[in-house]
Records
---
Amino acid sequence: MDSPSPRLQQLIGEIESNPDAVVQFWEEITATGTPLIESDGEHTDRYLVTFLWRETEPLQNVTMLEWFSVEDMTLQAKQLRKIEDTDIWYRTLTMAAGLCTSYRMVPNDSLVNLRGDPNFEERFKNSRIDPLNALKTIDNGDESGYENSSLFILPGAPVYEGIALTEQAPAAEFSEHTIHSHVMDQERRFWLHQPEAGTSTDWLLIQLDAEMVRESMRFPQIVSVIGTDSTLPSVSTVFVDTSDRAKDLPCNAEFADFVADELLPYVCDALGKEFPSERVIVAGQSYSGLAAAWIGLYRHDAVGNVLAQSGSFWWWPEYDDDNEDTIIGQTVRHCWLPTWTSQQPATSTRFWLEAGILEDHTEGKAPSLLTAHRTMRDVLIAKGNDVAYREYAGGHDLYLWRGLYLDGIRHLLNRDSSD
């Protein structure tokens, strides 16, 4: 729910008597930056956070692309309000201390449901970095691409080591490969990084969703940091193209078999080394986090370790959250992978699972991503799997996945010391 900003209330009271009040306000905001972060005057563990937009063109609306407030795929509930007879649009939210997350601004949006919208890509291209916010998820990154967003960090937020390390690290070099998958009957692209010449390779890391995480998570820089960490064993990395995400990622048996029976043998041959399953990690985020867990369970003979960040464990094959014709008394099924896992023999697959506390919103009758993550965790623990689980102070956010990734990799690579 929107909360009144003390600074905006002060401004509104000044406008009648001071014709320069709005100009002076923008000068102040330009100097301090956005969003405007204020105490609510009563609590030390929460803040009033006001997002601002200056009208420089005719506007019907201004809304936000963000995943930390309400779940609304139309973006209507995320709109800013205009202070009458000014060029100020604002949206004030009450937020807990310690949060760190990102957003983009969208002027003149169609406000129709993003799901099924044929103009989906154009709407994303119309979204913009907040021009008065100097913090971005990728320093010196392309501001026009959706992979970069504005960032805000509230007092009390932790410092994410992975962010600083990947900003400073060079990009690791990858060689591009294409193989024909007989399982999927198509050409499949991937990229391979090998440690320095003469260095033996102890582990293999398979990262899904190459097109999503390459720039947004600075994945080549993550690989460089892993390679220069003297406390870690030597790791070769495969970066897999999953551009057909809707087909490849939601618990697809063919895709899992491609990884285990075609990709892995090819990589092993290229590296001249075999990797037992306990030395293979598959990693993913969101939909590819679901896929990573699926591969680690369905093909545990080939993959023995999973890193899943904000995995879409709510997913069920026939679930349609846009169906408004749900009949009273009929239940909606969800959490297919946790359900399937509970019915299978136990495996020795190890897991690093994490999700954001802001991922607790629901739409339709599906559980929140956070609830589904907890369900997946509980099922795996009940089955006897080794599970490390964490909830962080953020949301469905590539910036935070980048900052947290190294923690999960270090945990999984330190298998010998944890056994």
---
Amino acid sequence: MKYVFAFFCAVLLIFSVSCASSGDSQPSPTPSEQAVTEQPAIESTASAEAQPDPEESAVSEAGGQLNLFTWEGMFPQEILDNFESDTGVKINYLNFDTDETMLAKLQTAKGGDYDLVIADDYIIETAIAENLVRKLDTSKLLNYGNINPMYQGQFYDPSDEYTVPYGAGVLTLLYDPSAASLDIKGYGDLWDAGLNNSVGLIANYRVINGVALKVLGESFNTNDLDVIQQAGDKLLELAPNIRVIKDDNLQDDLLSGEISAGIFYTSQATQAKLENPELKVIFPQEGIGFGIMAGFIPSAAPNAEAAYAFLDYILDPLRGAQCFEYLGYYSTFSASDHLISPEYKEFLTLPEGFNSDMEMIENIGAETNEKHEQIWTAFKTAAGRE
């Protein structure tokens, strides 16, 4: 997330509970990008001239309370405060630390207790399968057409019956042109001998194994164990170039010069670019992996009308731009893209006309996942990072 890609990968996370009021910290790393490591909130500078159009937003008659269940720091406080004052709906902001914690609580509540949940794609697929999610009545979302269709019709909700995407974590290839010895165009360039001992990677095995698969022209989600082993062999060739493998604050290693290139979570790339605009964000020629966070209304939500009101509120173009600048995720609302400030646009929106291969990292079977874990362990050992 948040990335995060998601941006977006199913990894094992510890189970613990964290419920508190809304704060300014970013979401914890999650499997969907993995999504995003915790970062300071980013001050939004979305166009001050644009104003939310009250006629383009549904007027809430829900009243009462919205039980919002998600990670900390998912919305600017201004958005939360204005929603309460504009609609009369009080927000009860409840936090979870991992998607698995969220699912366990939703299962215990049998789809009740919460009105709106925002979580990662892979866990939403499970919640839908367990009948814990209600189908959306899109007639109650006047701004529904503002969603970017690129982020719809995905594996977790193929018919767009249940969810509204809120932020995408994109696997980000980022490098410092003043330190790297080559002009990087794709993942495959990370294997270049000129990057010996100068590449940093996030510690998400589905992401990094998937990069090797993409270099070989394969899918992130292949179940062919022989192909996955070929990716493992390819990773071993990358080992001499690896300087660091870690999830937390990898951007600091790029900014300090410890590494000259790497694969980052979306929020890390955002922080790095804000500190050093000369860094280059690359959309790899092999294709892009991404993950999505999305909002859904639980099957027994006590106040579904409040959930619809909030979803429609943030789907407003300007409010959406403010949210994505604060969150540090790629905009999933096409109507918001032109309102995102120039200093953010390069790393919060896809280039105009971009049509490269994009693929989500999906849930896989136990045998396939075990193979991924094996080649990841071998790679870290070869890189001296085990």
---
Amino acid sequence: MITVEVRCPNCTADLSQREEESASPFFCPHCKQTFSPTQLPPEERMWYFARKKNRIGPLSWAELSALMQAGRIQQTDSILLHGTSQWLAPNEIPELVSVRQTDGEADTVETAGPSSQSPQTEREVVVTSSPAAEKTDESGLETNIVVDRPPLPQEDHFNIRDVEASFGLLGPVRQRLEYLPLEEVFFRYRVTGLSTNDEDQIDMEIDSWVTDSSGRKLAERSHPVKGRLYFGGGCYTGSSFAELRSNLSPGVYVFNVTVRDRLASVETSFQKAFKVVPLRFAIVSPRFVYRDGSDAPAGGLVGQMLGLRFRVVGFDKSTGRIQTECSLSVTDSHGTLLLRKPVCRKLASDDPAKVRDATFLHFAEFFGLNRVGDFLLCLDAKDLISGQTDRLELPIRVGSSIGVD
């Protein structure tokens, strides 16, 4: 089931609506008000676009406008605003008319997956470049729309699949592509169809960079990946990230990733648009880790030690001091609090040099997994100077280390 996240314009509560209810008005259970999607700020509206019998979405405005700007949307396509029932041509939507497309004709889009009488929901747009591509535009790029489906036993088509914004390589999926300055933009993905040499080793290079609305590169990194695929399959789980500067201006940016298979001399890429909002007091970049600092999943087995580290940004330094408090509480699957009182940590300083240079505060807590079940970690942060607060809730699952629930 696919859900669409929106924010109530009346009380600002975050809401979820099932995709199959896309033609229904929104109802907020918090303020008991209904509202239409046109009442939402343009950057918070969700969209779909359809070509023939295939539908892509839900897409944020940043993702839709990035596709329009790149020429991926044709005037013969249809656009639907989530929460409405009328499909429109791109030139009938004022917001899209003002989006400047890049020079050249839009790429031919091929779809993969079964056809039916109703559009099939697509989840990603993946741009693949290969010398062997049969259908290409003038730039040599072939565009594939990849349908969500179970992985095949042997995937020999070189591609990037299952792209997710997440909190680290093994952490929870990030639901909204909305970031604060000083946050980490992190994407994980699966590369399929990799070639191997006689030693069953891969040899590839991953490039990633962030561009602003004018196409200017703001951050760029490149790293080689070599190693043996012990379990075969020609697939590899990769990740790319960028840390956002403290002075980054609010707006829409694009995260770009290109993977090159050096053995086969082919490459594949993806792009994801994301939004940067003004800095505020918040808990950001949570990451589950083991004792050695390596990434850990959101949970584990009874008997393991698990750590959670995170940053606090946007704290008040106007008085020349820092006074911030963070607390951790835990609930079970029924919402019952499991600690008599939250575990609290304070970070304070009145050292002028430290206060001046501080851009974020780092907190970490380690805990033993002593019980099987589903739990919720509740982080609360408070700026004791300004009175601002923030809360972050992270689900974790603990399993049995001896195969017994």
---
Amino acid sequence: MLRMFIIMLLCLFTILEAAQTRSYDGYTYDQTTFSDGWVSTVKPDWVEVTHNVSPVKILLHYPKEGTIISANSDAEHIAAAWDILVAPRYTAMSDYFVAASITTSSSGYLASATLFDPLSNSWNYVVFFRRGNSGWIEFVAPDKATFMQLIPVDINTINWSTDSAIYNYFDYSGANRFMIASADLLGEWTNDFAAMQDVYNVYTGAVTGTYTYEHQSMITFNTSTYTRYDLFVSGQLGNYTYITLNSANYFAVPNPWMIYFADEQINNNPITYKSYIYEAYFSCIKNARLLWIKKTDPQYPDAEYEYKAYGKSVNNTSTPKKMISPALLNYLLN
């Protein structure tokens, strides 16, 4: 059943394509073409998103120190990021405007201005946006009318009662997504999560302890195999429970958006591993990439799994080699 599922995945037509030239940062793919015509390209300081029928250029800025701060107002918060990410690339400005905050549990930040770009020797209408984890997004259009052909929102008319759904028009953060190749995975990738919660007595209100949960995961990809180590820690101070899981087997990349892990249980651990297909992609930050993986399970197709982000160890010294073993390929294709 699993074998048939893998073969079906291999045969699926992917709605995304990517350029296959080695990128400046050493990864195989630096461009993604989405099914709706938008194209994302890796740049040194942002991901650039363009469309052949729209003159609007979208810059997904990488995180940078000082661009997300505690501030007394939206205007102060936006100004800090604007001065670092936007202003240095332009030489003149007019009609700077900060949009009003919308009353919602997750408000967004919006500003606009007309700016002169010395590189293109032209004036541009620029909109600057962030909400939640979107990162700072910059829209560069020839003029306001052209911008509103793409996003039918006049930010000058936004007020506290505006429907917060309009923020969805501005969030292009999902375009920071690039295909993977086996050679890109070589080395050690880690994901760490920790949370703490105080426990209170329901009668006195006094703190009776602190409950801790931590999960550390490390995946090391070799030429055609991988090893995985997981540590789970939970409990209260002085009474922690530890569970460690270790697995090692083959892996493969059935298509550039998936990783197949042939798992096996070792060390007689009470929790059993099994083989899985993971959806996978890279996102970009400055001088690095994050590996995002999400488990899929054909036995439970309605199960909702979340993507987890893994960062590559800076001390990795692996060198690219042939990645998929003949034995695994034979298993997948027969």
